[in-house]
Amino acid sequence: MQSKLLRVLEDRKVRRLGASVDVSVDVRIIAATNQNIQELIDSNKFRNDLYFRINSFEIYIPPLRERPEDIPILLNFYLDLLSRKMNKKIISIDNRVIQAAKAYDFPGNIRELRNMVERALILVDGDRLTLNEFSFAGFSEDSFEIVDFVEEDLFDLEEIEKRTILRALERTGFTKSETAQLLNITRQSLDRRLEKYNIEL
CA 124 to CA 132: how far, in whole Å? Predict the structure, then answer.
């Protein structure tokens, strides 16, 4: 298949099934992967020449766990999209949902976030999404207690995240591994957040 795709890109021609002549095409290829392409090339699972042919311009999109500031935007995007699709009128999302989502590591990336919103819309009875409709895998009640301390009138999401991390550190005696486990994020993710908020241990 890779050799056929490479030939199409080089010759800009395809042959339909059952046809005897080639047809010229003018296409642009947009490719995406969550795999390490260099490792696939080194293991001969991906053609080196095909990679260089399609890699005219590369855009790296970090996983969701590395950009928690995008989570409220994506939550609202999928809420608007899916609520219209499911014919449900939702006025707001409980602030605790956003706090918990920002502290969650999202191993399933954006697909997991989308599925969470869809599940919440299926379960909700009223016009407001709360923690009752969300299931953060591996997130304990202790984790929710940590994010529950934030003042009701505080809407600065970065400040909420910083305070959540500090509260978790206090609860675990400033032990990184236990703090990361309590917040359900990786040690690397915790280290990035500590650096971001200038929290020194």
Answer: 8
Domain CATH number, residue 190? 1.10.8.60
User: What tens digit of pLDDT does each residue of 40-81 get?
Assistant: 999 999 999 999 888 888 888 888 888 888 999 999 999 999
- End of a domain among 31, 54, 77? 54
Residue 120 makes CB contacts below 8 A (sequence gap 6+) with 129, 133, 134
**Is the separation of the CB atoms in 25 and 14 below 8 Å?**
yes
CA 141 – CA 96 distance, rounded (Å): 13
Residue 140 to residue 144: CA distance in whole angstroms: 7
Q: Which residues pair with 128 in a beta bridge?
A: 92
Range of the domain at 39: 2-54
Q: Quick check: 147 pLDDT over 80?
A: no
> What's the rounded Cα separation, in Å, for the pair 37 and 50?
11
Judgement on whether residues 97 and 187 belong to the same structural domain of the protein: yes
